[in-house]
Specification:
The chain is α+β, with helices and mostly antiparallel strands. The strands form ten sheets. It has an eight-stranded mixed beta sheet, covered by helices on one side. Strand 7 and strand 8 form a beta hairpin. Helix 1 packs across helix 2. The two termini are 17 Å apart.
């Protein structure tokens, strides 16, 4: 059984669900009912499987397809929210559950939850959004505040910080749903009026992340709205004071009893000094929003009382200190600025994940070094834009007895005099690059930080590691929160090995070459696992060596004119994927120019080490979505050929 759901299909919202009726419509659309041979039925099932969670491989029958998640809407395949919810319930054991390995069920659960969450978010209205807090209105009218009520190891205005392992009193107090107040119940007019309740709280690498549902009809909700319009809003926590425990300036126990919305920086313990001051600066630099309720005046006074240092400024709608980027002359200067906490003061832009964006001149060098060490990056179709990118590609499934596959169904014909030109319309498909976060963490002994050549060594290590792991996932990724690699490409052609006594022999190579379709110029490669090299070294035709005719002078770098790359990213000799023939021009890579680096001296303080976190945004997807049938035959070719 394998996971087959196409997560790039459009999603439609629907409350009702009839899985049996959807199954019949999908099979009819896929051509299963009209199929006459097992090959045609198998092809129809593969097409239909895009709308099902799983496909079994035991037989070629309707019940091979498990858990429909979509339907045919106006003649087009679409995922359906109610269908995905039914499938998720089955994965979780409802209605007898699904008989599948637990690892596969976990993957399916993650895919469905991500799709449903994405669809829910797409229908939300953002009321307010800042670095550590967002307020949104959901499709069903609920108002949700989500953000960090506590940020780990972020020095506050009093010089204190929360330890990562701080005891928040969950077990001690047994509080299940914290009340959401305004200004810790201390505002003279609002008092202990309940704005809502915290419905979810969890720890992550940044801090204590909470989600609260606001009372839609709360008397003082307009006060929250007015503060949000001025970006003068943050989260804070209140604790049982006599149970608080500190070690010097580090808070080790903070038994939370309530969470508050406050005009920042009214509660400095939730936000770092820089962030608190930035938001205060922005609140002061913008025109005062008109007060919708009398209580807003008090909140305005609190914001106006915030002291903002003269050296700060607000530039281009974003907050930062007055900048002197000329002080960052090398990558070493950049790392030193981030490590010392002076990055913002030097005009280095903060990234969305809390680190600092590597300046453009250094990014270009990092990406160049990565490309030099990569199999895929110098050969693939590359884009550097951030965010989600959707690209149309020709539908190669339209090849038939009299139609070439390469033009999406468009054909030219000979015409008799006066004959009408037959109309043909090209068919297109789409692939999506999602700009997925891709991160690595390394720690370095502090004694090495000032060593000669450390900057060069770190840059080289970052570049090589990034290139290596990108290559690995561009080849082997399953597409679930990561790139879809060529080994899992829907358009791949599988070639059964000849079994001539070696894992790989000349018959296999020729058969793979015969099924190979090039789409680029000089971008094709053989990929083989190191354990396949002994077989390749013995390649011979009519007792004549064809790979290593003279071992003293080395081996040929090509096989059938195509470069051979030996890499551990293939499977071991004798297993599926130990030899791959691929044209990388048929593969799309997204690698953003925005690379973010964060440095922490605290994570491994006891080991006298400094942690470096590198984060980029990348994805990879096959540009060719279908195997192509040569005209007038059922013979399939592809730019992705895998030895089975």
């Amino acid at each position: 059984m394998r996971l087959t759901l196409d997560t790039d299909l459009p999603v439609v919202s629907r409350a009702e669900w009839d899985g049996d009726a959807a199954r019949e419509r999908i099979l009819r659309w896929a051509g299963y009912e009209d199929a006459e041979t097992n090959e045609q039925r198998d092809e129809a099932l593969n097409r239909a499987a895009r709308l099902f969670l799983f496909r079994r491989d035991e037989a070629i029958a309707k019940n091979d397809l498990v858990a429909p998640c979509g339907d045919i809407v106006d003649g087009e395949p679409r995922l359906v929210t109610s269908g995905m919810r039914y499938a998720l319930a089955a994965v979780n054991g409802a209605r007898g559950g699904i008989d599948a390995p637990e690892e596969l069920l976990q993957r399916a659960r993650r895919v469905l939850e991500r799709l449903l969450e994405r669809e829910e978010k797409s229908s939300e209205e953002i009321i307010y959004e800042a670095k550590h807090l967002a307020i949104k209105r959901t499709a069903d009218g609920r108002i949700i505040a989500r953000g960090y009520a506590i940020v780990w190891e972020s020095t506050d205005l009093e010089g204190e910080q929360f330890a990562r392992d701080v005891d928040l009193g969950e077990e001690l107090l047994g509080v299940k749903t914290y009340p959401l107040l305004y200004e810790h119940g201390q505002h003279p007019d609002v008092g202990l009026a309940l704005l809502g309740r915290v419905v979810k709280a969890e720890r992550d690498d940044i801090g204590w992340l909470i989600e609260a549902e606001l009372e839609r009809h709360a008397k003082y909700l307009e006060l929250v709205r007015a503060l949000a319009e001025r970006d003068a809003l943050g989260l804070s926590t209140g604790a049982v004071s006599h149970l608080v425990q500190r070690e010097g300036k580090t808070i080790k126990r903070w038994p939370v009893i309530e969470v508050s919305l406050t005009p920042t920086p009214a509660e400095p313990k939730t936000l770092g000094v820089e962030l608190a001051r930035e938001i205060g600066a922005k609140a002061l630099s913008e025109p005062q929003a008109q007060a919708d309720v009398a209580e807003d005046k008090a909140a305005s006074a609190a914001s106006e009382a915030t002291e903002v240092p003269q050296e700060q400024t607000s530039v281009g709608g974003g907050e930062m200190y007055a900048t002197q980027t000329d002080n960052v002359k090398s990558f070493r200067d950049f790392l030193a600025a981030v490590k010392s906490g002076n990055a913002k003061a030097l005009g280095i832009t903060q990234g969305p994940q809390g680190g600092y964006l590597v300046p453009e001149e250094f990014v270009a060098d990092l990406l160049r070094m990565a490309a030099e060490r990569s199999i895929v990056l110098p050969r693939a179709f590359r884009v550097s834009a951030v965010g989600t990118i959707r690209q149309p590609v020709i539908d190669l499934s339209k090849g038939s007895a009299d139609t070439l596959a390469w033009f999406g169904g468009v054909k030219f014909e000979w015409l008799a005099e006066g004959a009408t030109i037959p109309e043909t319309e090209p068919s297109f498909k789409q692939y999506t690059l999602r700009g997925i976060a891709f991160a690595g963490l390394t720690r370095v002994a502090n004694r090495l930080l000032d060593a000669p050549g450390f900057e060069t060594t770190l840059r080289q290590m970052m570049s090589e590691a990034m290139a290596a792991y990108l290559d690995y996932y561009f080849i082997r990724g399953d597409g679930a929160g990561k790139p879809l690699g060529v080994l899992n490409a829907p358009a791949r052609v599988n070639v059964t090995r000849a079994g001539g006594g070696q894992p790989f022999d000349p018959v296999d190579a020729v058969e793979m070459y015969a099924r190979f379709k090039t789409v680029g110029n000089g971008t094709a490669t053989w990929l083989i696992h190191p354990s396949v090299v002994p077989s390749l070294a013995q390649f011979a035709v009519a007792n004549t060596p064809v790979w290593a005719p003279n071992w003293r002078e080395g081996v040929a770098g090509t096989l059938l004119g195509i470069p051979v790359i030996v890499t551990e990213y293939c499977s071991q000799a004798g297993t599926a994927g130990d030899v791959i023939l691929v044209d990388w021009a048929a593969y799309a890579v997204q690698l953003s120019n925005e690379i973010e680096i964060a440095v922490s001296e605290h994570a491994y303080f006891a080991q006298d080490q400094t942690a470096f976190r590198v984060l980029a945004y990348a994805d990879g997807q096959p540009r060719i979505q279908d195997k192509a049938k040569l005209i007038g035959t059922s013979y399939e070719v592809s730019p992705f050929v895998v030895l089975q």
